[in-house]
Amino acid sequence: MRLIDLSSPVDAAGFEPNPVRHEILSPAEGARHMSEEMRAGFGLELAPESLPDAEFLSLDTLTLTTHTGTHVDAPSHYGSRAAYGKPRNIDELPLEWFTGPGCVLDATAEPVGALDAGWVRRELRRIGHEVRPGEIVLLHTGASARDGQPEYFSEFTGLDASAVHHLLDLGVRVIGTDAFSLDAPFSHIIRNYRDTGDSSVLWPAHFAGREREYCQIERLANLGALPEPAGFRFCCFPVKIKGAGAGWARAVAFVD
């Protein structure tokens, strides 16, 4: 069994619309921090110099959104109300949703915009694969090659509502993408809305989650490393953040 990492990193050095702040205490700074915390919180005294090399433990503090790096969107991310009842948060979803057979659809040759159900059907016929209930479907756009750059947020393709509903009709509960969003880029969506005045073009892949309960995995990476479009097992367990609309995750493919 070979493991393929399909996750993008949380990297404070890369471009993000919501910048990441990563503060690091070195082991020496950690010793002084521990000494001060022990004194203030517990009334205990231990001088940093008492520790080997006057070092304790390093400490990382990050400030970021739950939509930074590879993450899973919960139904509550899509809105406060849904046709099926109260949308669940990321800590309320069953773990079984996030592990199972996976397949990847190749959209690397597609232009910026959104792909429809007809494209999904044609791609599944091309690769000769029949999606089964519980399967996790991943969209390979090639956008992850631009991660950390401004273009990552504006040059990719997504899915429209018809594509999402088609996959849900097949029994899919989790859809992933290596792009910033499962929807088309902001600029494409706003331009379509201005041209048509049709509100259905506004984030249709996300808002489909108000009609039917499902999760998205966004900002995957390395999907081109999968040797076959199907026949692998996929796992992407979200961090259990109480009451959150999303959770960071480490996505991995298990290949025989």
TrEMBL record:
SUPFAM superfamilies: Putative cyclase (SSF102198). GO terms for molecular function: arylformamidase activity. GO terms for biological process: L-tryptophan catabolic process to kynurenine. It comes from the Bacteria. InterPro entries: KFase/CYL, KFase_sf. PANTHER family: CYCLASE-LIKE PROTEIN 2. This is Cyclase family protein. It comes from Amycolatopsis acidicola.
